[in-house]
Amino acid sequence: MISISHKAKQFLVLLIKLLIVGGAFYFIYSQLANNAKLDWEKFIFLFQKNQSIIGISFILLLSVLNRFFEILKWQNLVSYLREITLPEATKQVLGALTAGLFTPNGVGEYAGKVLFFEKIYAKKIIFLNLICNGIQLILSVFFGTIGLWILGYGFWVLVILFSSFALWIFGFGLKKFKIKGYSIEKLIYKINEIPKSIHQKNIFLAVCRYMVFSHQYYFLFLAFDVNLPYLTMMAAIASVYFLASSLPTFQFLDFAVKGSVAVYFFGILGVNEWIVVFISTLMWFLNVVLPVIIGSYYVLNFKIKTEQ
Q1: Which sequence spans correspond to the domains of the chain?
Q2: What is the pLDDT of residues 86-114, one digit of tens each?
Q3: Roughly what angle, to the nearest 10 degrees, separates helices 6-33 and 290-300?
């Protein structure tokens, strides 16, 4: 086995940190600077027209709450292994978010969280992160299905429900079938090992988080003078999150994917395309870019655990 000196290891870790942070900021800049659909003159005009310290503070507060509920979710789930403080949970969530910015579907986020724990916890941390993200996906499907029904896509709702039922039946029939030692039955057993109180709190926090970011989307539309009925607007937002979450993507392209889906739904409702693109970009900036900037600090100050 090749032995790496302590100084060489330190240099390698520093290089990786700089690559992660530098790559994150490069992708953020390139997406904001090279998007031809962003009409900054119109945005500045509307911003000056509707600017309000209270309104801006409220939108920023929703971004803080969005990540805060995610941090609480992670702290709650990790308590199954050991208790961690809120600052520790914050460091792990934001640091992992930065690491996963330019990996497919945030895969780097899983690896990022693992690095904050001893090696013996690696598989369990990945599993807990799967549960943490999984409940958010389930909520997106649930509310998205309702949203599609409200918007008049009843046929597609029935297709989704039928497909889900068929997958459930198929999965139940193959619950003992193993792939590399893992089976659906074993997965269910592992999920049930976690106390119900932790699952219940996880679901509650996930619902809170969903309500926060979906209503942030709603209030941004109001700020851009889009006046549609509340139920119609929320149904469209829920549909956008549902369909966008089912598409494979990178975190740094998240606003482009959600923006494309949003343009379709809100276009049908008569909302101007540039407004939809701008709001999708703002949502990405507020809920991904700003946390990544903070997370970059944690990445640069990350120290590898010696007890591995």
Answers
A1: 47-300
A2: 999 999 999 888 877 766 666 777 777 88
A3: 170
